[in-house]
């Protein structure tokens, strides 16, 4: 008997992985001495915890 993942997100990630898709955590990108939002490409100071342009926040 197989055990099922606890979280619905884990089930979806497993579904994608089984079909050859890469599943990675999305975080800030770096552009010189700034953080860059992966959603809208807005630039922020290194101390930023969320994007002030689109509201994106990295998953912890």
Question: How does the SSE layout of this entry go?
Answer:
Blueprint: H1 8-18, E1 29-31, E2 34-36, E3 43-44
Antiparallel strand pairs: 1-2, 2-3
How does the major sheet shape up?
3 strands, antiparallel
Tell me the series of helices and strands, N- to C-terminal: HEEE
Compute the CA-based radius of gyration. 16 Å
Distance between the termini: 32 Å
Total strands: the figure is: 3
Beta percentage is: 5-15%
Number of helical segments?
1
* Low-pLDDT ranges: none
Features of this protein?
3 strands, 3-stranded antiparallel β-sheet, 60 residues, alpha+beta
Tell me about this structure.
Strand 2 and strand 3 form a beta hairpin. It is built from one helix and three strands; from the N terminus they run H-E-E-E. It has a domain at 26-55. It has 60 residues and is α+β, with helices and mostly antiparallel strands. The chain has one helix spanning 8-18, and strands at 29-31, 34-36, 43-44. The model has no long low-confidence stretch (mean pLDDT 82). It is elongated, with a radius of gyration of 16 Å. The chain has a three-stranded antiparallel sheet, with no helix packed on it.
């Amino acid at each position: 008997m197989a055990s099922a993942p606890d979280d619905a997100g884990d089930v979806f990630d497993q579904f994608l992985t089984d079909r050859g898709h890469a599943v990675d955590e999305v975080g800030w990108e770096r552009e010189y001495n700034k953080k860059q939002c992966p959603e809208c490409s807005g630039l922020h100071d290194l101390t930023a915890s969320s994007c002030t342009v689109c509201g994106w926040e990295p998953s912890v």
